[in-house]
Amino acid sequence: MVNAILPVSSIEVGHHTTATWLGLTVNTDTIYATLVAAAVTLVLAFILRAKVTSTGVPSGVQLFWEAITVQMRSQVQSSMGLSLAPFVLPLVVSLFVFILVANWISVLPLQYTSADGATLELLKPPASDINFVLALALLVFICYHAAGFRRSGIIGYPIKVTKGHVAFLAPINLVEEIAKPISLSLRLFGNIFAGVIMVGLIALLPTYIMWAPNAIWKTFDLFVGLIQAFIFALLTILYFSQATETQDAHH
Amino acid sequence: MGEAVISGATVLASEAESGTTNFLVPNGTFFFILAIFLVVFGVIAKFVVQPVQKVLDERVRLTAQTALDNRRAAEQDAAAESEFKQELTSARSEAGGIRDRSRAEGRQVADELRAVAGAKVAEEVRQASENLEAQKDGLTPTLNASVESLSVALANRIIGVDGGR
Fold this sequence. Notes:
The complex is a heterodimer of chains A (251) and B (165). By secondary structure, chain A is mainly alpha-helical. Chain A contains 7 helices and 4 strands. In chain A, the strands form 2 sheets. Chain A has a two-stranded antiparallel sheet with strand order 1-2. Chain A has a two-stranded antiparallel ribbon with strand order 3-4. The longest helix of chain A has 38 residues, at 207-244. The N and C termini of chain A lie far apart (59 Å). Chain B is 86% helix and 0% strand. Chain B has 2 helices and no strands. Chains A and B meet through strand 1, strand 2, helix 1, helix 2 and helix 3 of A and helix 1 and helix 2 of B.
């Protein structure tokens, strides 16, 4: 039941409603919010599919997708070229839009009261759940290493990654490699989770003043959500370009 | 309100104490999120990035085509212009030639006609003088013959003698 527009101080942070599906414990609130984000993204995709045009006047949805695709394509082109790994462009476009929508749906101030009287957010930002960010970051991690193996070979790629530019920095290179998925996931998680905590803190303020910092924070949260989605996509491209570059291709 | 748990750290601590799950440890949600994202990725790769790239390439192609068409049209325009000028020049020179030729022809015709007329005049003058000559020749003996009698008659009239008539 949606019973309040303004957040109240009984919001719990880092608490998930859980269920057991296929023998796995799942956070149903995260899955629910992720499904909503995926549905929004897919609806936008299908609208584009239905009305895409190259000779007529492009619709707003097409301009949205075109702007993102052009932006990401130029990023991919400038850092690694489009031909090395053709699936990078769709991957970063999906990541960007999916994370963006996932971050932005939490701006809706929808709450419900659970059976035991606790007030919960109806749409928690999925990125405030470690599962969401880990799933995306590990997928990126596996994909860019796969691209690296395809480019430099089964033997050559691990050597290249370990050795880096100079052999004696190999331990640091290994740490860097392990740090990549962790930093990629925790950066997004931390930023969005911080937003949830901020809303919880703002909710402690008296009701007659709470709306002002809440409005300001939610607006800023939109910006944070956009920036984090963009950074996630940008770092994905960067990691791909690092994995697919060869020794003789250094500039 | 008072018992509400606000900060993540507090939640973490209380959950660790009570033995419930730590929200920083991933669970089965991971796989469901991964599956959802892979579906989104598949749809976007197939239904968004491909058509959008096709549209972008098509637009680049159309732009290049239009530029090419423009250049070709300008070339054709220039060619037509120069051809027109050339035609105009040749037509002008042709017209000048025709004018010269017709002037010469006209002069020739006039000369011919003048010559014919001159010949005719000369012929008529000659015939007239021949006629006059013939008349003169025809009249001279007659007049010569009558000179005597006229002289006698005149002399007789002067001297008053009737010459036997």
